[in-house]
Design a protein that fits this description.
Helix content: 25-40%
Low-confidence stretches: 1-47
Radius of gyration: 25 Å
Strand content: 15-25%
Largest sheet: 6 strands, antiparallel
Shape: globular
Distance between the termini: 56 Å
Strand order of the largest sheet: 19-31-32-37-34-35
Mean pLDDT: 91
Structural class: alpha+beta
Length: about 700
């Protein structure tokens, strides 16, 4: 389990999903609602200034502000590098609340006891300390800034103090620490594992991330400190060997699907962050068999969580949790980045395929559905946070490099534009003048203006990636608004018309144990009953994915038709063995054999047995997201078709289209000649399962 924040900044699996499907927004402001799902006309481009592009985006001021000097004293099982000579280290406060005057105050997790000065969780936590170290390490390596080297050194010392060094839990990590340096192994409310160093965890995985990158950075600069980090990395990996990695090669079953049993805390998400550190370490020490073996095993496990395809939900995503086949979340979504980073280190091109499918097929669908929502469970939902956005950017950049897929950088630019205003609030989420980043943006555009450690860290990781690639940086800075999206949408089952024996059911909780009922309700039909919908007409074909909670035992089928033409059937049951999941059955979007024809709106499902229907996912065969800014308007067209498609768009007089098509792996293909019809419409060609970037150029 990941840490469950009292202030609901970061979701836990599954507790927070069971509790709510949105962030708790503290002190929100209002913002405009999301744009209507229509394609916008293209407008003429302008230029991003050279001065803007050359100025660094990475500003560490706010992260520096979050840092505190923490007193340390040796205790049983906990010490750090040169503790006697330096009885303190540095750690970031967990949260930062925005004051009325625009300043920030540092806040711990949970409630504060004025008598002791302790927080019910703690002031600092290993998750944020580890990732803060990664920011300073990368900044030091990228810029040579000595202050960043010192902050990296001190936060790594702080992190290793939290690592347990003796006893049965050696190698594991305590999560929380108080302002006076006291450790809090058991927080309130209780988090699992409890105590926090009693088993492997997300914070152990992130510790491996920081230790691996730390060793690589200090190997030459400070060999003695690097040797200490190496010892602590070995201690962490030895702990993993006794826990999840002891199951390497074995598989569990989740709703009839075979899933790797050796992922850290059951997650490709946690495992991915460990892999980032192990890959950095393995490049520096290629003959370390302990680390290389762990790197290989974890990367194989992550790749094994790849799911779906262009025409099957979740469209190639690497799923984060082996206990659910239908819950994807953006936070901790570094799995493609990890696989893409590790693949060349291991010389395993076979593993790269999963990262390419996630980056080139799933992520574009995420953007056209409204952006990097914090979760699809299985319908898109929740707020959007910097952690999720950065995870997509890091994954796109790493996969573009490893897969020689330049098209993924086009997608990365649009994704990174979230920080500059291409989000539901239509306002910047990151301020390069101060280094602050908002703690979240709700689906209705409301903003959480606070700027805690996690949001700051992941905004800075994206800024470091942009600063390292001037061309990508220029593209991202040219985007500050999402004009429109026309992608995956949801039609609730309870909005349909029930024919025969059936009813709308509102369960006590929308959470099933592995997914959420969309809208908090579903429809139950008995044999012979039907559920009809009148869908808005569209000018193109659309794929329809009925979301059915399939039981384990057979229960007939549901036939789905449009205007009395059968489009396909879905099984009401036969979900497969429950296995390790927390609920019997599987709430899942199911594919039909044929698409809903253009212009068709009458859609009907008729069942031969008892069935639970949650919603319909509607996907245009050619989806699109349009963004604008200093560089003008660009539109990304994404295909869910098995053949090449051509889409008409309006072109202002005096301009023509510039388009570049990419295949389903993000590699460039020769675009069709742009053509302008007498009606001033341009033809955009989109490859099967691929995407095309379109811009206007003056004739």
């Amino acid at each position: 389990m990941t840490k469950t924040p009292v202030r609901s900044k970061l979701l836990a699996k599954p507790a927070a999903l069971a509790a709510a499907m949105s962030l708790l927004v503290v002190g929100v402001g209002t913002g405009p609602a999301a744009a209507a799902p229509v394609e916008a006309p293209l407008v003429a481009p302008t230029a991003t200034s050279d001065a803007t592009v050359t100025e660094p985006l990475t500003n560490l001021s706010h992260l520096d502000f979050l840092l505190e000097t923490v007193p340390l004293a040796a205790l049983e099982g906990h010490t750090t590098y040169e503790l006697e000579a330096q009885p303190s280290a540095q750690a970031p406060w967990t949260y930062a609340d925005k004051n009325a005057d625009g300043s920030f105050r540092r806040v711990g997790g949970g409630s504060l006891d004025p008598a002791t000065g302790h927080w019910s969780q703690g002031a600092y936590n290993a998750d944020d300390i580890a990732r803060t170290a990664v920011v300073y390490l990368r900044h030091w390596q990228q810029t040579g800034r000595e202050a960043s080297r010192e902050h990296a050194f001190q936060t790594l010392r702080s992190l290793t103090f939290l690592q347990t060094t003796t006893g049965p839990h050696a190698g594991n990590v305590v999560l929380w620490q108080q302002p006076d340096g006291t450790l809090t192994p058991s927080a309130s409310p209780i988090e699992l594992p409890d105590p926090s160093d009693s088993a492997e965890s997300y914070w152990l995985a992130r510790t491996v991330w920081a230790l691996g990158e730390g060793y690589a950075a200090f190997k030459t600069a400070d060999p003695q400190f690097a040797s200490f980090l190496q010892d602590r990395l070995h201690l962490a990996v030895e702990s993993l060997k006794k826990q999840s990695l002891a199951k390497y090669g074995s598989y569990d079953v989740a709703d009839g699907t075979r899933v790797p049993a050796w992922l850290i805390a059951g997650g490709a998400d946690a495992s991915a962050e460990a892999v980032l550190g192990l890959a950095a370490y393995a490049k520096a020490v290629p003959d370390d068999m302990l680390a290389n073996t762990a790197l290989t095993q974890l990367t194989e496990g992550i790749a094994g969580m790849s799911s779906g395809s262009v025409g099957q939900w979740p469209f190639g995503a690497i799923m984060p949790w082996n206990k659910s086949q239908t819950l994807w979340h953006a936070w901790g979504g570094m799995a493609p980045a990890a696989v893409a980073t590790a693949s060349p280190v291991l010389d395993r091109d076979d593993l790269l395929t999963s990262a390419v499918r996630d980056a080139a097929q799933f992520t574009p669908q995420l953007l056209v559905a409204g952006g990097p929502d914090n979760a699809w469970s299985p319908t898109p939902g929740e707020a959007q946070i910097a952690y999720g956005v950065d995870s997509r950017v890091q994954s796109l950049v790493a996969t573009a490099k490893a897969g020689n897929a330049p098209g993924l950088l086009e997608v990365a630019a649009i994704t990174a534009g979230w920080f500059f205003g291409a989000n539901r609030s239509n306002a910047p989420a990151y301020n390069p003048a101060t280094g602050t980043a908002v703690d979240g943006i709700e689906r209705d555009g409301r903003v959480n203006p606070n700027s805690g450690a996690e949001s700051t860290i992941h905004a800075l990781l994206t800024m470091l990636a942009l600063d390292a690639d001037p061309a990508l940086k220029a593209k991202a800075l040219g985007i500050n608004k999402t004009v429109s999206t026309n992608g995956l949408s949801v039609v609730e089952a309870e909005s349909g018309t029930i024919g025969g024996s059936g009813s709308v059911v509102k369960p006590t909780s929308a959470w099933t144990g592995e997914a959420n009922y969309s809208g908090g309700a579903y429809v139950t039909l008995e044999a012979g009953a039907s559920l009809g919908f009148q869908l808005p007409a569209a000018d193109q074909e659309r794929a329809v994915y009925p979301i059915v909670n399939q039981g384990i035992t057979p229960s007939g089928t549901t036939g789905w038709s449009a205007n009395r033409t059968l489009l396909g059937t879905t099984a009401n049951g036969e979900a497969g063995a429950q296995g390790i999941t927390e609920a019997a059955g599987k709430l899942s979007p199911l594919s039909l054999e044929r698409a809903l024809p253009a212009g068709a709106g009458n859609f009907l499902g008729k069942s031969t047995g008892t069935v639970v229907i949650d919603a319909l996912l509607i996907q245009p065969i050619i989806s699109a997201v349009s963004v604008t800014g200093a560089a003008g308007t660009s539109t990304l067209y994404i295909s869910a078709a098995a053949d090449t498609r051509v889409r008409k768009v309006d072109v202002p007089r005096g301009f023509t289209l510039r388009q570049q098509a990419y295949d389903a792996s993000g590699k460039a293909i020769r675009p069709a000649q742009a053509s302008i019809g007498e009606d001033r419409s341009g033809r955009v060609t989109v490859a099967p399962g691929g995407f095309t970037m379109v811009q206007l150029v003056r004739k």
